[in-house]
């Protein structure tokens, strides 16, 4: 039953504007619908008692009148029930997948069907059926999802990983499972670990479909993100100096950070880790790091795996699929800059806090803050968690594009307190 509890879909629940005010209005409406029906029912059932004699005189006429009334009331009740169900859905702000509509791929229906456990309720988990999970936001992209779920069962999957990623980026996470074989990519010439960490990866063993660039030359010229400027070039450039040689005072060295840790750093999680170099440097120090990445504009996941490292293909909107208090270290850089309302960053920060053990380190690596205000908001948020500041550096770099202003970078190593 262990597999059943891995229902990671509910982490993405996004609630609609169910404000206190609108819920009150909805409740008032529900109440008025119910009371109208009760009055109608009362008026109808009570009146015949006073006129029983007349009913017998004009039975035929009156009966047809009555049945007309009854069907009217039944229709009314039926429509009220539908209204109630709709209101309930709106109150929850959660639309379930409507798989009854036309043009829904049959494979999707089969995948989403609930399966009763053959022996009834499972005594250990208490569940009676297995429910396949799919991100509820998939509903918004039903056409794309149906396209994704259209394939020949047991045949080759379409070469459509980028369609899957498009769905994930629209909140359709987790994706449904499929019953087809992923496009094969021959992984020839993989080097043994730890040589694999720095051995240039062959272009031939990566998937380039659905990407703008078709080779490393193109990728290395592009600024893919703040963490990845030429990050696929392991031989030249800055990539092989990251974390071992500092370029500015907001770049901390891995050995300095590890020296701060108490109780040993053995496993870590890197958020938005580019081509996996942080994990590679940690692997050299016998620390196992999982690198969280999607394939935005580059084949990050396959590249990291080819280096003998662990890529986790998951968007940052998704609750981390790890249990509480398990990591010794979480490393994050500009991937943390989620934008939007401060609450969005809070949800992410609380999730990072959740997976980090007491005494574990949160390494905030050159987080770019657009302005002082952003930096203050972030600082206040971090301080609320009560972490011990082992290192705290605010750096400034002149913004060449925007003369007069300068970019603010925040780097910190923070230790999670033992809360009681
Ligand atoms: C990593 O582990 C190996 C095997 O146990 C050991 O030989 C090596 O010295 C360790 N390296 C570091 C940096 O601790
Ligand atoms: C209960 C009821 O509606 N009774 C009516 C039956 O029909 C006669 C004649 O049309 C009426 O007088 C009654 O009021």
UniProtKB/TrEMBL annotation:
The keyword Ligase does not apply. The chain crosses the membrane at residues 24-44. Residues 70-97 form a coiled coil. One of its GO terms (molecular function) is methyltransferase activity. Keywords: Coiled coil, Glycoprotein, Membrane, Methyltransferase, Signal-anchor, Transferase, Transmembrane, Transmembrane helix. It is found in: Endomembrane system; Membrane. The keyword Membrane applies. It is a single-pass membrane protein; Single-pass type II membrane protein. It comes from the Eukaryota. Belongs to the methyltransferase superfamily. This is Methyltransferase type 11 domain-containing protein. It comes from Hevea brasiliensis.
